[in-house]
Design goal:
Blueprint: E1 18-25, E2 35-43, E3 46-52, H1 53-59, E4 64-75, E5 77-82, H2 100-114, H3 117-133, E6 136-141, H4 148-158, E7 161-164, H5 181-195, E8 201-203, E9 205-209, H6 215-227, E10 232-236, H7 241-250, H8 254-261, E11 268-272, H9 278-287, E12 290-293, H10 295-301, H11 305-308, H12 311-316, E13 321-323, H13 336-351, H14 359-364, H15 368-373, E14 391-395, H16 408-415, E15 421-426, E16 429-433, E17 436-437, H17 442-460
Parallel strand pairs: 1-4, 5-6, 6-7, 7-8, 9-10, 10-11, 11-12, 12-13
Antiparallel strand pairs: 1-2, 2-3, 4-14, 14-15, 15-16, 16-17
Helix pairs in contact: 2-17, 3-4, 3-17, 5-6, 8-9
The protein binds zinc ion.
């Protein structure tokens, strides 16, 4: 597939000297208060100054500007669990009234099996465009990529950042035999080489997880991530089926067993962790293992988060949690602000306590709290001098912003969502302007997406 570049104007290229202007800036730094009539100066992809708009404009008269009156600037949002391939070309097609086995074996498995490298690149590009247009500048790929180089091309086409691995499992199951441990690790090492020196995308070790990893594989993969000083992510316990599988195989619950193996730690980001018992929560906290929490997926799939989820308790006890959007047939919309509102609503409703986990906490776990869960808070997650210039600029003139609340976080999380995002800066480059991606042509991609969608349905025999 080709990703046609736009005739980008000079201001859309490297933006060596950009000023983001907003009548309110939320830095999301601890203890910070909204800054009014502010500017954020950006050079060489980094934030170099935050201050009064008048002062910074006077200091940088040549700088191009973006935003201005009627805009709110927040850190680029972080999506900590997103499948960039497999679901996109059949988005919102898997019926929402199927048994879990049928949606996996009649839809997800054949779709993944028929996915080509071209499909992977297009899928990742489309997913990352949607994410970017909803204010997301950093995406953790969830661990199911067959063609990592093609997904990396998608990251580069859209201009956003993230983490990337290659999918791996070594336990045989329908319809594929599992790979050997060495084969899985070799593919992860290849991604480390592929991403070495990349300024926005980090190679992570990724496994499918669940009960599709032997003890030998998960230990070796966790050690590989440690050796490369990088992260590892895999799925665990979105429903209660992993618990049943581990109890049958090893007589222990999953997180207890993984801790006994030495596979947990601060470099580990578990996808989901919905069904966790007391001792599992204790083990995750003791090892500083983080969780990616994707509330819309659990609702769409009926996995029991409203009854069993303990993410807010985990956070209250010091656990690191980031929000995620999962997949286009599991939560479907790639909108971290929507996930933040849902996380807050679920927390309040499950406890029947309106004082817990409000919009401010939810936005924290989409920004700086998420960066901490990824072990990347030195680099992303807040608007801070020296950090990567990942900035989301919200248009506050739309109907959902009238009249303006004195608390922009309440209005952003509860009244708005990704639809309010106007412009997005990723590593200092304007990647979304006036709601449109600047580096790829959305219309041309849409035509290609319709073709590849029909072709995939045909080849995978999805009916
Ligand atoms: Zn997932």
């Amino acid at each position: 597939m080709s990703t046609p570049p736009l005739n980008d104007s000079p201001t859309d290229r490297a933006d060596p000297d950009l000023l983001v202007l907003a009548d309110t800036v939320l830095t999301m730094e601890p203890g910070s208060v909204p800054i009014t009539d502010a500017a954020i100066a950006v050079a060489d992809g980094r934030i170099t100054a935050i201050g009064p708009a008048a002062t910074l404009r006077a200091a940088h008269p040549e700088a191009s500007t973006i935003g201005g009156r009627g805009h709110l600037a927040i850190p680029g949002l972080i999506n900590a669990h997103q499948h960039l391939t497999g679901d996109r070309l059949i988005r919102s097609m898997i019926p929402d009234d199927l048994e879990p086995g049928r949606s996996i074996f009649e839809w997800a498995v054949p779709a993944h099996a028929a996915h080509t490298g071209d499909d992977d690149e297009l899928s990742a590009t489309l997913s990352l465009i949607e994410a970017a247009c909803n204010g997301v500048t950093f995406t953790v790929e969830a661990g199911t990529v067959a063609h990592p180089a093609r997904v990396l091309a998608g990251f580069d086409a859209v201009g956003v950042g993230g983490t990337l691995g290659s999918w791996g499992w070594d336990v045989a199951g329908e319809p594929w035999a599992g790979d050997t441990v060495e084969d899985v690790l070799d593919r992860q090492r290849e991604v480390q080489q592929l991403t070495a020196g990349h300024d926005r995308v980090d190679g992570w070790v990724t496994l499918v997880g669940h009960d599709l990893m032997s003890d030998e594989l998960v230990v070796a993969a966790s050690d590989l991530a440690r050796a490369h000083a990088t992260g590892i992510t895999f799925h665990l316990s979105p429903s209660d089926s992993d618990t049943a599988a581990y109890l049958e195989r090893v007589g222990k619950r999953p997180a207890v067993h993984l801790d006994d193996l030495g596979a947990l730690g601060s470099h580990v980001l578990l996808g989901h962790g919905v069904h966790l018992a007391d001792d599992e929560l204790d083990r995750l906290l003791a090892t500083d293992t983080a969780i990616a929490y994707c509330p819309w997926a659990y609702l769409r799939l009926g996995q029991g988060v409203s009854r069993a989820g303990r993410h807010i308790e985990f956070i209250a006890r010091g656990g690191r949690v980031a929000l995620g959007c999962d997949a286009e047939n599991a939560g479907d919309a790639i909108d971290v602000l929507g996930a933040a509102a849902l996380a807050a609503g679920l927390a309040k409703d499950a406890t029947m306590d309106p004082t817990v986990f409000g919009a401010h906490a939810a936005l924290h776990h989409a920004t700086l709290g998420a960066a901490k869960a990824l072990g990347m808070s030195d680099e992303i997650g807040s608007i801070s001098v020296g950090k990567r210039a990942d900035i989301t600029i919200v248009d506050t003139t739309g109907p959902e912003w009238v009249p303006r609340s004195p608390d922009p976080v309440l209005q952003l999380v509860w009244a708005s969502d990704g639809r309010s995002v106007a412009h997005v800066v990723s590593s200092g480059r304007v990647v979304v302007r006036d709601g449109e991606p600047t580096m790829v042509h959305r219309g041309a991609l849409a035509v290609e997406a319709e073709q590849r969608h029909r072709s995939l349905i045909e080849r995978a025999n999805l009916r």
